[in-house]
Amino acid sequence: MEEMETKLCSSDKEEAFKRELPYCIGEINFTASGKNHGKFMKVQSTIHPGIIFEVMLNKWKLPAPNLVISLVGGEENFQMKPWLRDTLKKGFIKAAESTGAWIFTSALRVGVTRHLVQAVRDLALASTSSTLSVIAIGIASLREIQHREILENTKSESLVHYQSDDNIQGPLYSLDHNHSHFILVDHTTPEEPDGTTKLRFTLEKFISEQRTGYGSKQLLIEIPVLCLLVNGGPGTLERICSGLENSAPWLILAGSGGTADILAAFMNDPQLIMPEAVEKQFKEKFPGESFSRKDILQWTVTIQNIISHQHLLTLHNFEQDGSEELDTVILKALVKACKSQSQEAKEYLDELKLAVAWNRVDIAKSEIFNGDVEWKSCDLEEVMMDALVNNKPEFVKLFIDNGANIYEFLTYSRLQRLYCSISQKCLLYELLLKKHEESKLTLAGLTGQQQNEQKEICPLFTLSEVSRVLKDFLHDACKGFYQDLRHGGKKKSDKTNTKRVPGPLDMNQKSENPWRDLFVWAVLQNRHKMANYFWAMGQEGVASALAACKILKEMSRLETETKAACIMKEAKYEQLAVELFSECYHNSEERAFALLVRKNQYWSKTTCLQLATEADAKSFFAHDGVQAFLTKIWWGDMSTSTQILKLICAFWCPFLIYTNLISFSEEKQSKNEPEPFRELDSLDSERTLFFSKEEDR
C-alpha cells in the first residue's frame, strides 16, 4: 500500500511538473505525405531561448550545430529563377551538409522554404546514415498556420495527425512536412502582438553565444549564426536591422528579387539612399503595391542604418559569380564580420577553426593569413593540434609558415595526446593496445593486484608503449626514445661499469627533435603526405627515410587490410633516401662516404649503412655512390686498380707484398683539406653537402 501511495505521489509530481513546463512537446504525423512525421514544441513568445535550446539538445537529442543558417525572406510565393532554385537545392544543401548545420525557416509550405526543405528531405532519403546531417527547423506563429486548432488543443507528449494542403493561397499556409522539427509560437490572447520574429531572433542570439566542439571535438568555438536573405518583402528590413544591431552577419543573395535586390542596389553607392531613389526601387521590385510617403521615409532611414553595417553584410550574385561554392561564400561572410571588430589574432580564432573544420585552406590563406593580423605561436597551438589529429598537412604547413613554432609547440605531453587520438581502425592502435595490455599485466604482477577484467573504452597510451612498438621495428635504432637519460635517470653501479638508468619522462618537457617525432608519428599511421612534409623539414634525412622504410616493411607484414598494406608498399621512402644521397654524392664524394658511416644523433647513434641493412634497402645499396664506398672498404688501403693476378701471387708468396707489386692509396692528406668525417658530425650534414661546391670555390 505504501509503495502504491509513493508511486501515486511521484506520478502526481510528474504531472504537476509537466503542467508547469513553459512548453508542450509532441509529434506531428503528416497524413497526406506518406511516412513523414516531425517533432514539435509549442511555446509562448516570452519563453527564454535557453529553454528551447535545452529541449533541442536533451529532449529531441539533436547534435549541437556547427553552424546555424537562418533563412529570411521569400515567405510568399514568387517566380523563382532557375539559378536561384539550383543554388538553394544544391549549393545551399551541400554547404549545410558539409558543416553539420541547423537551418531555421518559416516552417510554412510556401515560397523559398518549400523548395529548400524539399532538398533537405531528398538528402535525408538518399543518405544511408541514421542521423540527419542537415536539420531543418521551422519556426512559425500558430496564427499563420492552416488547421491551427489541431495544434492549439494538443497536450504534451501527444501525437497530432495533421493534413497538409498545397493549394492554399494565403494568408494561412500549411506546415511543410519536409521539416524534421517545429517550434510553434502560441500567444496568450488574440490581442497580443506577434512575437515570433523576436523569439526567433533571441534564439539565434542565444545559440551564437554557446560553444561547441568541432572537428576532432578538441576545437571549441562559438556556434556561428548566419542570416541568409533571399528575396524578402518590405517588412524584412526591420528584421535585418535588429539582427545587425546585435552583430549578426548577413549574406544577401543579389538577383533573388525583393528587398535583397533593393539592398544590393545601394550597397556600392550609399550616397544614393534618398527617398526618391528608395521609392523608385520599391516600385520596381513590388510593382503591384502602393506605398505611402511615410513608409518610404521610414524605409529610407532603415536602409541607411543597414548599409552603415557593411562589415556585417556580404553581397553575392550567384548568377554572375557562380564559380564560388556556397560554403566558401558563407565562410568569407563570417570572416568578414569579425574583421571589423579587431585586428587581434584571438578575434579570428573561431573563423580559423571553421576553416580548419571545413578543410578550406584556400580561404584561410586569402581571408585570415593575408598579412592583416600578426599571429603568435601560442595563438595557433589549438588549431595546429586539430590539423595534426585530422590529417590536414596543408594547414600544418600554413600554420608553420605563419608563426607556429614547432619547437615550442611539441611537448611530450602533446605528443602523447597525438598517439592517444589515433583511429581504432589503424594497425598502430592494435600494436599500442597490445603493449598497453602487457603493461597492465606487468603492473598487476608487480603490485600483486588482480587484473580487472573490464576492458577500457579509451585506453590512454603512453610514450613508453610507443617506444616499445618502435623497438620491435627498429631495434637499436630507437634505443632511448622517449626516456629521460639526462636528468631523471639514476646511476646504477656494478663491478665493471656505471650506467645511467632511464628515468621518468617529464611530460612538460619540449621534444628534442619535434620533426623526427612527428615524422615517426605520421609514418606509423600511414599518413605519407604529412610525413613527407616533416621529413623535408627535419634533419638527418637519409637516416630518417631509411628508418621509415624499415618501419613500413615491418608493418606491411602485419597489416591485414589490403588497401592500407598497398599504401604502405607504395610509400617512396627508400627512393627519397636514394635521391637525397645522390645529391650529396654529386656534391662531394668524400663527404657522402662519411655520411654513410656517421653516427646519427637522432637515431641512437646508428649509421645509414646499418639502417639500410635493417631495412633491406636494395635500391639504396645499388646506388653508385654506396657501391663505390663498399668497394673502397673491401679494398682497404690497396689501390682499386690492382690486378687480381697480382693479389693471387701475393697470396701464394707473401714476401711480394713488400715489393711494389701491389700499389697502395695515398694516406697523406693535404693540410688545407678539411677532415670530412669530423666536419660531418654536425646535425645538418646533408644540407652542408648541398653547398659544398660553393664553399670550396
From TrEMBL:
Keywords: Ion channel, Ion transport, Membrane, Transmembrane, Transmembrane helix, Transport
Gene Ontology molecular function: any one: calcium-activated cation channel activity
Region (Disordered): 486-507
Compartmental location: Membrane
Pfam (any one): TRPM2
Tree of life domain: Eukaryota
Domain TRPM-like positions: 367-623
GO CC terms: plasma membrane
Residues covered by the TRPM SLOG domain: 39-267
Name of protein: TRPM5 protein
Organism classification: Eukaryota, Metazoa, Chordata, Craniata, Vertebrata
Gene: Trpm5
